[in-house]
Structure formats: C-alpha cells, structure tokens
Amino acid sequence: MKREFIAAIDQGTTSTRCILFDHAGRLVSVAQREHRQIFPRPGWVEHDPVEIWRNVERVVPRAVAQARAEPDQIAALGIANQRETVVLWERRSGRPVGNAITWQDTRTANLVDQLAADGGVDRFRERCGLPLMTYFSGPTLKWMLRQDPILREQAERGELLFGTMETWLIWNLTGGPDGGLHLTDVTNASRTMLMDLSTLQWDEELLDAFGVPAAMLPHIRSNVEVYGAATTVLPGTSIAAALGDQQAALFGQTCFSPGEAKCTYGTGAFLLLNTGPDPVRSSHGLLSTVGYQVGDGAPTYALEGSIAVTGSLVQWLRDRLGLIDSAPEIETLARTVEDNGGCYIVPAFSGLFAPHWRSEARGLIIGLTSYITKGHLARAILEATAWQTREVVDAMNADSGLALTGLKVDGGMTSDHLLMQTIADVLDVPVERPLVSETVSLGAAYAAGLAVGFWPELKGLRHHWHRAARWLPEMSAPRRAKEYDNWQRAVARTYDWIRNEDEDGPGA
Amino acid sequence: MPGTVQSIERAAAVLRLLAESTRPLGVVEIAHALSLPKGTAHGIIRTLHTVGFVDQDDRSGRYQLGSQLVRLGGHQLDRNELRSCAMNWADTLASRTGESVRIGVLDQPSQVTIVHHVFRPDDSVQVMEIGRVLPAHACALGKAILAHTPGNGGWLKGSTLEGLTARTVTDGRALLGQLSTVRERGWASDVEELDSREASIAAPIRDHGGVVVGAVAITGSTKALCDTGRNPRPRLAARVVDTARAITGELATRRE
C-alpha cells in the first residue's frame, strides 16, 4: 500500500497528541488526550508515565482511523516532547519508579543553591550551555538518586534506566522490557546539563557533579534517523525522529539558516534562534542548546530565550481579576482605549527570567493615575508580552552578532491580532504566522519524513511553509524608543523586592 | 401610574409562550393558548417577526423565539473569541482550497466587518484585512449572514442598493430572492459583485444557541472558484460549509 502519511506524537505538558500529515505537509487528522497534573506538595509537579504511555496507545490509532488510513500507510513516526521531565524505570519489569518529575517542579531549589554555592550558577555553562536551574534534568536526577540509596545501587548496576519523555516512549514502542531501545536525541540530551554541548556525548565531569551513573543513561542519537521499528501501536513502522518540543517547532517553522528565529507563544514564550554549526555561549542571559542534527551531519545550534509569563498573564486577568470571560476577550478590552495611558505591567510573578534572571524581583503595575481604566490594563498586559520578546531579541542580537530581520510566530496567542501587531511594532521587524500552526508536531513529522525519504531533503521543506498572516511595524521610531525606555524603567523597579530574611515578601 | 398597554402585554404573553414551548408553534395554537382571536394573534406575531423577536420556520410556517431577542438578553459572542475558535479550521480551509479565507460579522444591518483573514497560501504579497468593512449586499459573507438575520425583509424590499461592479445586485427584492436560495442550499456566493475579478463563497457560523453570528468565506479569481458558466464549484462550496460547521462545533464546545 502507498505510504501517504507521517505520524507525529506531541507528548506535551498537559496532553498527548497524534497528528497525521500528508506529502504537502498538511494536517490530515488530530487525536488528543490530556493527562493528570499531580501536585503532591506546593511546588511539586508530577506526571504518571504509565498514564502517558497509555494515552499514546490510544491517540495514535485514533488519529490513523480519523484519516481513514491503514497503519501500513504510515511511512514513519516522529516524536516531539515536553523537555527536561525525568522518568526512572526498572529495566527488567518496565515499571516506572514513582512518577515523572516535570520541568515545572521546583523541589530542587535548595539543591541548586548548594550546587551554585561552589562556583556560581554558571559553573557548568561552558560545558553544557546551561545555568544551574531547577528545571533542567540533571538536578532532578541527582535529587531522585539521593532520596533512595537503593535506586543508586540499581542505577549503578544498569537495572534502573533514566529517560526524558521521548526515551520512555521509544523504549515502550520498541518492546519495553522485551528488547526496548534505550535512546535519546541530541536536543533532549542538551537539556539535562549532563551532555557536553560540543561533543554531543555524556560528560564524565558533569555526571560526576550530579552523581549520575553512566549505566543508567540512554544512547544519544541524532534527531533524524531510523532508530528502529515499533513493535506495538504501529507495529513495523519506523521510529525516525525525536526532538524536544521547542526545537521541533524551530524545525517545523523551517528555520534552517543561521539568523532565522521562531517564537512560540503559549503560557510562556520560547524564542529560538538558529546560530549555525557552532554553539554560541550567551553572555546576555540566554540558553545555548542544540537546535537539531540530521543523521551523521554536523549539529545546528540555537540560542533560546525563555519568557516565563505571557499567556498566563492573560489568564491572570481572566481568573484572578475577573475582568474578561475568555482569554481572546483581552483584545476587545484593550481596543476600548487608544494606548496604555502611561501604565506598564511587569509580570515578574516568580522573578524575572531571560535575559534578567532576577529571582528576587516581583511583578508590578506602575504609572497608575485616576485616568487608567481596565482597558489600559489590558493594553499593558499585551504590551508586556511584546516588550519581553524585545528584550530577548536584543539579547540574541548581542550574543549572536546577527540582527533579526523577521520573526516567525506560532502558538495559541497568535490569534490575538493586536498582540501580533504590537510585537511587530516594538521589534520593528515583520512578524509572520505560518499556515500550519501545529509547528511542534509538524517539526517531528518533517524530521521523521526526512529520515525515511518521504521528503528528499531539508531545503525542500521550505516550500511547504506558507504565510497565513503578516504584521508590519507601524509604530514611529521616537515612540518606540520612548515606550521601551518606560518599559525598562518599570523592569528596573521590580528588582530587590524579596529580601532574604523575609522570603515570602512584605504582607505575607 | 398610567394604564398598561394591552398590545404589549399580549406580545409579552406570546413571547413567554414561545419561550416555554419545546417546538415552534403555529398561529392557531398561539391564539388558542392565549384565548386571542386568530387575527389579533397573527397581527402581534407578524409585528414581532418584523422586529426580529420572532423567527418563522421556512418550511412549516411555525414560529419560535427570534435571534434578535436571544441577542438582547444573552452574552454576545466576542469577535476575538470567534477568531480564536476559528483559526485552525480557517487555516485548514485555506490549505485545502489554496484560496484566502475571511471571517466576517454583521456590524450594522448593511455592513460586514472582517474579523479574521488567512492569506492565500502562495506567499505573494498580501495585506491583512482585519477590520475592513464590506457592504453586506455585495459579498458572500454578507449574504450568508443576512439570509439568517430576521427583520431584514423590511429595509431590503423597497431599497436600491449601491452598485460596486456591473454585477452587484442592486435591487432589494432580487437580493431577497437570492437569500432564500442561500437558506435552502446552506451557502452564499458573490461572483464579481464586490470586485470585478473575484468571486467568493461563504457559509454561516452559528453560536451554541443556533444563532448565526458570522460567516466564513473563501475568495479567489472567478476562474478558480467558478465553472465556465460562472457557477460556484460545488466541491469548494462543500468545503466552506464543512468549515463553517466545524467552527460552529468549536463554538459550542468552547461555551460548555
């Protein structure tokens, strides 16, 4: 039978989806299932790996059926996944040891402080490209092994396996305890703090620093190659790609040349810039990471700017202040006024992320006068996302020596027309949205399709990218400069709010 | 306090009766239920129909509460929420047909405002049209909505409409005839009525209560959208109708 489709699994933070794409890179069918968010204590966020695996078993056949396809019409399977989340399981039984600890979990805060006490948060940055922070896998893994000496012994004997989500899924797809493949890819491995960013191998010194036995680690592979054939779910189908979700979006947006960047706007926002064949070490608060690697080819690196609060600020307006009924209504409210009326909101809810990294900062609303209405607050909220993007772009330009000439955007917030216009205005470059907004799944599909020859070459994939919308800068240069100055002054006023002796802040 | 107005009391009773009924009601039933002479009941119902508070079912001739009335009391659909719900489906429509997609809402009785625009996927230079206002009588979007907007019979019947091209329908009565066809087949079109080189096919989008709140359309060259006889291609019309239905479904789940 003709192989007409590529299946992509997007194992995300809140749900697992399977999407089928056709030869033209068009979306054919979607099936989705959410999983539980488990909060055992404040700051702890876990997922049940067995539940997630069962969801994969359910959504893939559903997506195939929805496309009225037969399993043997699927040319290959690609995986994109939530990054940094850690799963441990027993090699022999296939049973996970407890829940997966997710990237949002902050239980390692003290551990990270201890590690940073000896050499600062940047002590491993040269080697792995990342600062010491709770959301990378290395600290989490150290915490887990320290909790239980038996686990450490099992790990040293190779009886206990470590993996991020793609590793867990590939192992299960290829037989689990019965011959399952234990492997990861360069993008997911680049978020563990355990891999040397230049050699793309596990690094002994880093393993030592985090107390990780090498016997428990998966093999590191490229993003685009046939890892093996599935023995279940889609038996016989080649598993041909795995990427972290943000890198998958970079790939799906076909940002294949140095200087090309994409920003995915969701709860937070992630801006990734292709920096070419050499890792760029950031001196402006960005993360250095692997963008993608095709087979035996040289890797492509990326700089990443992570913005913690974007869509979640709109949710705050909706759920905490109750000023709107649904997130899209923020645009309606913002359009009741012409401008921000002099009001600025800096959403440093849990400190400031890229490029400031100030954990003691807290959010503020400044410029309040009796003139300010809820419409001005709505404007200020949308502008906060735009200015945070601008700060990350400025840091990227400074680090890479490349000047961004346009920004490709995706994610749920791209439906906000006013926000997209504002981003074009403050960046002073065109902002473009692609026709397929499911860029994470599309990236995994592209990678898998390339590996099996469904698509012949990387460059050709660009022809599938079509512009669905484009916003051009309209703001005058003096106004942009003045507004940016106001924003930066507002940001500076969020610093030094939480004091050491008073960790919960005034009024707590 | 001055005395109450009897006809308003009666009108209110008719509305209450329709609101409580699980199915549309005929004039005789209404007259009987309220102990009114049939002529009186008919006069009240026709007046309520004219102002859009009562809708008449085309086939059975029976009456139910009108969409205008639902709008008066209910939460009006936010146009930015409509865009958010429609985005994936509009993208798919553009990708499947190769044409640009627009979603419009009726702002005034005679004007459609574009609330969403997906470029024609050929990467040519195109300008974002969100916020643009179109004359409702001359575009498929407008016709798809007008066909399901009660109370427009009044102002359309006697009026002469502005001609934008040689093919714009300027006779109100002729347009009403078209709208009846739109209701029957479920989609509307304009062929070189707004722009002399372009055609457009649109279908209505409904909210969770079934009220038409907007329409989705593809727009392209007459050659691409129509056969040699200038008739819109049924295959494309079916895709537009499917998309409108999918967006309607999305609106329903969003409001749950």
Structural account:
The complex is a heterodimer of chains A (508) and B (256). Chain A is globular. Chain A has helices at residues 49-66, 109-117, 125-128, 137-147, 149-156, 165-173, 186-189, 204-210, 245-252, 311-319, 329-334, 374-400, 417-427, 439-451, 477-492; strands at residues 5-11, 15-21, 27-34, 46-47, 74-81, 87-90, 100-101, 160-163, 183-185, 219-221, 224-229, 238-244, 261-265, 269-276, 287-292, 300-307, 344-346, 364-366, 407-410, 431-434, 467-471. In chain A, a hairpin with a 7-residue loop joins strand 15 and strand 16 (300-307). Chain A is an alpha/beta fold and 508 residues long. The longest helix of chain A is centred in the last third of the chain and has 27 residues, at 374-400. Chain B is α+β, with helices and mostly antiparallel strands and 256 residues long. In chain B, strands 5-4-3-8-7-6 form a 6-stranded antiparallel β-sheet. In chain B, strands 1-2 form a two-stranded antiparallel sheet. In chain B, a hairpin with a 6-residue loop joins strand 6 and strand 7. Chain B is elongated and about 65 Å long. The model of chain B has no long low-confidence stretch (mean pLDDT 88). Chains A and B meet through helix 11 and strand 21 of A and helix 5 of B.
